[in-house]
Write a structure and sequence with these properties.
The chain is α/β, with parallel strands linked by helices and 388 residues long. The protein folds into two domains: 6-252, Type I PLP-dependent aspartate aminotransferase-like (Major domain) (Aspartate Aminotransferase, domain 2, 3-Layer(aba) Sandwich); 256-387, Aspartate Aminotransferase, domain 1, CATH 3.90.1150. It contains 14 helices and twelve strands. It has a seven-stranded mixed beta sheet with strand order 1-7-6-5-4-2-3, with helices on both faces. A five-stranded mixed beta sheet has the order 8-9-12-11-10.
């Protein structure tokens, strides 16, 4: 469906009427195993950990939305990142952005390091900083853009150039933008990851992750990137069930119109907060005041739905604000139709060591908002009364 626009792809890519019944919606193939005519003679399916028809439709659609060649889905975003790390061997090195989702940093430092991988964390808003951290054994560069939670922007094109010059893969966590606003494979990335729990599903009722890749065979891997990841997906087994895949397929149908509304609302909320006397600073990639707004605009078509801001007064004021809101739910996660708000230092990034949080600027006054698709005026009024 390369010739169709994004809004058409989210409804039709990979989706065909069921050949048996003509059902327009993809059936939920709720089965663990499949009958074979004789040993080894089957219809393409043997066991649902390896393949499932509902899951395959979702994977086909995801590849189309990111303009990739293949996609694989997993039971969570972290499970998908762990599959990428399993491409590597003990002694391999990874360069990662310093501002990452707390669970990603925890996976890197407290799990993968025990398997013999080494990591360098650095601020990659200056791409040349990446060049300085590359080593002969660097096999992977892992970034977010915009980052979680500080919404820093990385130059994805330049990061890809540097990674490839050194024979490494570039992986980009594209969760905050979704493929509607940003497609890192088109900018040179090798792997795109989404926590599909967030915008891709959009309704806060599914845990899932995905990887999307282009056809390629890295010399150090010795086989195609997709084939190796597919092997790992089946071997490790962190695959989602067919009902969850069905729910995400349903959610994707409204991705384009949801992202437009998230974007418009976030811009209004960010503008309001920027002018409020009790707010010290606001970070939103769509604001002219964002230090990398021009770079973001060159590689993305929208600012997204995430806004962070720093309150004057630190933790006591931040807690009071969160306790005073009526429409915003104080909750982890993001990307649902409803607005969520959280305190990164206590919630999503509590696993990041205090000294690292302080160095990054994840202060006790920092608040992260996932702006939903409600009426923007109602959201602003709620924030206004809570700030008062």
């Amino acid at each position: 469906m390369a010739d169709y626009k994004f809004e058409t792809k989210v409804i039709h890519a990979g989706v065909e009427p069921d050949p048996q019944t003509g059902a327009v919606m993809t059936p939920i193939y709720q089965t663990s195993t499949y009958a074979q005519e004789s040993p080894g003679k089957h219809k393409g399916y043997e066991y649902s950990r390896g393949d499932n028809p509902t899951r395959n439709v979702l994977q086909t659609q995801l590849a189309a939305l990111e303009n990739g060649d293949h996609a694989l889905v997993y039971s969570s975003g972290l499970a998908s990142i762990d599959n990428v790390l399993n491409l590597l061997k003990s002694g391999d090195h990874v360069v990662a952005g310093d501002d990452l989702y707390g669970g990603t940093r925890r996976l890197f430092t407290r799990v993968a390091q025990n398997r013999g991988l080494t990591f360098s964390f650095t601020c990659l808003t200056d791409a040349e900083e990446l060049e300085r951290h590359m080593k002969p054994n660097t096999k992977l560069v892992w970034i977010e853009s915009p980052t979680n939670p500080l919404l820093k922007v990385m130059d994805i094109r330049r990061a890809a150039e540097i990674a490839h010059k050194h024979g490494a893969l570039l992986g980009v966590d594209n969760t905050f933008m979704s493929p509607y606003f940003q497609r890192p494979l088109e900018l040179g990335a090798d792997i795109v990851m989404h926590s599909m729990t967030k915008y891709m599903n959009g309704h806060s009722d599914v845990l899932m992750g995905c990887l999307v890749v282009k056809d390629q065979t890295p010399s150090w891997l010795g086989e195609s990137l997709f084939a190796k990841l597919k092997f790992l997906q089946n071997s490790i087994g962190a695959t989602p069930g067919p009902f969850d895949c069905f729910l995400v397929l349903r959610g994707l149908k409204t991705l384009a119109i949801r992202m437009d509304r998230h974007n418009a609302n976030a811009m209004k909320v960010a503008t309001f907060l920027e002018s409020h006397p009790k707010v010290e600073s606001v970070s939103y990639p769509g604001l002219p005041s964002h230090p990398n707004q021009a770079l973001h605009a060159s590689q993305s078509s929208g600012g997204g739905g995430m806004v962070t801001f720093v309150l004057k007064g630190g933790l006591p004021v931040a807690k009071k604000l969160l306790e005073s809101l009526k429409l915003f739910a104080v909750a982890e996660s993001l990307g649902g139709v409803e607005s969520l708000i959280e305190h990164p230092a206590i919630m999503t990034h509590a696993s990041v060591p205090v000294e690292v949080r302080e160095e990054l600027g994840i202060s006790d006054g920092l608040i992260r908002i996932s702006v939903g698709i409600e009426a923007a005026d109602d959201l602003i009024a709620d924030l206004d009364q809570a700030l008062r």
